[in-house]
Amino acid sequence: MTTLSLPSPVRTLTVTEPEITDYRGAARRGLPTARPGQASPVHTFVLAHTVAEQTVAALTAAEPGPVSVVHLGQDIRTLRPVRPGEQVTVTLDVLGIRREPRGARIALRVRLTGEDGPEPFAELVISALLVGATLLEPFGDIAGGAAAPAPLGAGEPQTAVHALTTDWITTYAHASGDLNPIHLDEDAARAAGFDTVIAHGMSVVALAVEEATDRFAAGDSARVRGLGCRFSAPVPPGIPLEIALQPDAEARVVRFTCKTPKGAAVKSGWIEFAAPAPGGPR
């Protein structure tokens, strides 16, 4: 697979237990307390985000005008959650770039390697639109991650409804380290074309994953082997957010959508669970 080489798209960091606890707690506000020390599967995106952000900044540094990033889709494959106290190496490749009328669409692959050997314990593919980018040369493949797993049969659908408050959004911003003003400042949000601040797209996904994990995996986030989705609209605070969960017959693949009264916010969502350990809760 062709990739674009950059000077140093690598970062090494140590993930602390308070960071893991704070992030999962922020994603689970309004839900029962999570298992101590067990990370959210979406924490992998938190670790990848800084390198991805730095890469986009480097790629667009020569652009004559401002460039804004719109997160289009996310794919995460994981063997296990990140561990408290673990040193993680984050490595990024640019898989492809395609010109579009509003800018350039880009696909980034991020691999997370931990303390148990050279093979990554998580791999993410991030799809984004760089609005205003005019100088990037097309190359490679922007198709995204591998196909979502096929569900086997159908189980009983379930629905959860939340209303994300501005305090919920602020707490998530600080726990994730994503302090983009559109999530925190109404003037900045309006300047970007929104009526008010908006929730982080990945916060909505993290909440959906937590709801599914509680309902279909006895709250054990270590059973998550992958997840993916496409983003279609922002989620403002104070309005109903409906999370629809459709498990397959064995609750190993759960499809999900997230919508507000204005329409779909997250679509084509899926979560894959490993089978429960023998003798463990189902």
Automatic annotation (TrEMBL):
| Residue ranges annotated for the MaoC-like domain, each copy included | 163-245
A Pfam match is: MaoC_dehydratas
Please, which domain of life does this record's source organism belong to?
Bacteria
Q: Which InterPro entries match?
A: HotDog_dom_sf (IPR029069), MaoC-like_dom (IPR002539)
By sequence similarity, the record places it as follows: Belongs to the enoyl-CoA hydratase/isomerase family.
Among PANTHER family, the record links this protein to: (3R)-HYDROXYACYL-ACP DEHYDRATASE SUBUNIT HADB, 3-HYDROXYACYL-THIOESTER DEHYDRATASE HTDX-RELATED
Name of the protein in its database record? Acyl dehydratase
Tell me what organism the protein belongs to. Answer: Streptomyces avidinii
